Amino acid sequence: MPDGQAGGDRIEAAVRAVLGSLSGDMTVTEAALLGELEALGREVARAKSEIAALRVDDINASHIPTATDELDAVVSHTATATNEILDCCEVLEGLQSRLAGEDAEALGGAVTRIYEACSFQDITGQRIGKVVSALKSIERRVAAVTQSFGRGESAPLAEQEEPAAPRTEGEELANGPQLPGAGTSQAEIDRLLASFD
Amino acid sequence: MDKNTNVLIVDDYKTMLRIIRNLLKQLEFDNVEEASDGQEALAKLRAGQFGLVISDWNMQPMTGLDLLKEVRADARLKDTPFIMITAESKTENVVAAKAAGVSNYIVKPFNAETLRGKIEKVLTHA
C-alpha cells in the first residue's frame, strides 16, 4: 500500500481486497463477514461525503486565521487605548503639583485608581493568548483529520506536533490567569506565605 | 523603608512596566530600571547594584521563577529582595516561588496599597 495513501482510502482499499478474496461458495460466517464489510465500506463513503459537506478546509483556511487576527487586533487596540489613558494620567500627575491640600490628594488618589484599573490590559492579553493557543491546537487537529481523508497535504498529527523541548519549572507552571474563583486570592496567598515563616 | 533603593522591574508587557513604574513613582521610588524578560533582568542585575526586584512570572526566554532561582544561586545577588507580581494564582505557583526563595508574592490585578505594603515588608526585613 503506498505510504502517501490517505486513511479513508486505505480503509476502502482494504475492504475491497477482503471482498475480492471472498469469491465462490461462502460459509454462513463468511457471508456475515461480507455483509459487515459492505456496511463498513458504505460507512466510510458516507463519512467522507459528510466531511466534504462540512467544508472543513474553510476552518483552517479562513475561520481560525480570521479569529486569531481579530483577537490580535483586540490586544493591539486595548494596548493603544491603555497607553493613551496612561499618557493622560501622567499629564494629570504633572498638574497635581499646582494643587494643594485635599484637591491634590483627591487627584492623586484618582490617578492611582486609574493605574490600578489599567492592569486589565495585561490580564486581558494573557487570557486572549490562551485562546489563540487553543485555536492553533484545534487548527493542527483539523489539518490532521483532513489529511487522513485525503483532502489535505499536511502531515499526520503526530508529525505536526513540535518536538517537546525540555521545560523549566517556571515554564511548566506558567498557566496564565485563572478564571474568577478558580485561583488563590491575595489574602489566601498571604496566609500561605505566613505559614512558611 | 529606603526610597533611594534601586529597583528593577521585569515584565514582558510594556504597559505593565509603565503602570508599575508610575505606581513606584507615587511611592517616591525614583531609581527604577526595567527589563522585559528574565535573561535581560539577570544581565542588568549582574552589571548593576539593585536593592529590590519586582518581577512577572510568565515571560520568555526566562520566566520569573527561573530568574528568581538564578538570583538565589548567585553569590552576590542571593540576598536581593524579590517580589513576584503575577497572574499565576494557583497554590502550586506560590509554593514553588516560596521554595525558590521569593520574598513576597502579589497576584494580578493588584492595587497600589498592596504593592506599598509588600515593598515595605521586604525592605524592612532585608
From TrEMBL, chain A:
<feature type="coiled-coil region">
    <location>
        <begin position="30"/>
        <end position="57"/>
    </location>
</feature>
<protein>
    <submittedName>
        <fullName>Protein phosphatase CheZ</fullName>
    </submittedName>
</protein>
<feature type="compositionally biased region" description="Low complexity">
    <location>
        <begin position="153"/>
        <end position="166"/>
    </location>
</feature>
<dbReference type="InterPro" id="IPR007439">
    <property type="entry name" value="Chemotax_Pase_CheZ"/>
</dbReference>
<keyword id="KW-0175">Coiled coil</keyword>
<dbReference type="Pfam" id="PF04344">
    <property type="entry name" value="CheZ"/>
</dbReference>
<feature type="region of interest" description="Disordered">
    <location>
        <begin position="149"/>
        <end position="186"/>
    </location>
</feature>
Automatic annotation (TrEMBL), chain B:
<dbReference type="InterPro" id="IPR050595">
    <property type="entry name" value="Bact_response_regulator"/>
</dbReference>
<feature type="modified residue" description="4-aspartylphosphate">
    <location>
        <position position="56"/>
    </location>
</feature>
<protein>
    <submittedName>
        <fullName>Response regulator</fullName>
    </submittedName>
</protein>
<dbReference type="Pfam" id="PF00072">
    <property type="entry name" value="Response_reg"/>
</dbReference>
<feature type="domain" description="Response regulatory">
    <location>
        <begin position="6"/>
        <end position="123"/>
    </location>
</feature>
<keyword id="KW-0597">Phosphoprotein</keyword>
<dbReference type="InterPro" id="IPR001789">
    <property type="entry name" value="Sig_transdc_resp-reg_receiver"/>
</dbReference>
<dbReference type="InterPro" id="IPR011006">
    <property type="entry name" value="CheY-like_superfamily"/>
</dbReference>
